[in-house]
Write a structure and sequence with these properties.
Layout lengths: L1 E4 L5 H8 L3 H10 L9 H9 L3 H14 L2 E5 L11 E9 L4 H9 L4 E6 L11 E7 L2 H15 L3 E8 L20
Antiparallel strand pairs: 1-2, 3-5, 3-6, 4-5
Helix pairs in contact: 3-4
């Protein structure tokens, strides 16, 4: 499991705005490498901190609701699952339709990431980024073609950018402070 903290504002700023105290900080530190894969991860995190599992869960939910934590989700290693063809598809979608179409695309099973991004004309006309995973490039290309049909006339062009190597993905890492949580 992964805990993703909000990248849009520094933690110190978020802490002041959202009331992050020393216990919340200790919870973030304890979970930044992921939640333990045990039947009760909340208690496993809370035990060393002297907290009940229910308190850890409640605090993490509060941090998520306030925006300090963006999401709590499973992050499978798709390479180990056989999904070795990873294509970031980039689309030039008519701005008049991108909000609606972006929501539709994001809801498609198999789409792991879907983002609207600014164009950088004339070199980069693409404004919708969609990550597709397949067991082969042919599978990704088939998914992209289905996406192209779904976007219809609002789509002017697209490209598939395949991963060439695996990059280590991690969320925010906090520096540990000496001493126990206050």
């Amino acid at each position: 499991m992964s805990v993703s903290t909000c990248p849009s504002e520094p933690l110190a700023e978020a802490a002041g705005a959202h009331g992050l105290d020393a216990i919340d900080r200790a919870i973030v530190l304890a979970t930044q490498a992921g939640l333990p894969l045990v039947p009760d991860p909340w208690s496993a995190v809370g035990g060393p901190l002297g907290l009940a599992g229910e308190e850890v869960r409640a605090r993490m939910q509060r941090m998520q609701q306030s925006g300090v934590i963006r999401r709590i989700a499973a992050v499978p290693n798709h390479y180990r699952l056989g999904y070795v063809a990873n294509g970031m598809t980039v689309w030039d979608v008519d701005d008049a339709h991108i909000e609606r179409l972006g929501r539709e695309v994001a809801a498609i099973r198999g789409v792991s990431h879907c983002y609207r991004r600014p164009r950088h004309l004339p070199e980069w006309p693409y404004n919708l980024f969609v990550m597709l995973h397949g067991k082969s490039q042919a599978e990704v290309e088939c998914q992209a073609e289905a996406l192209r049909e779904r976007l219809g006339e609002a789509c002017r062009d697209h490209r598939i950018l395949y991963s060439s190597r695996i990059l280590k993905k991690t969320g925010l890492r906090l520096a540990r402070r000496p001493g126990p949580p206050r």
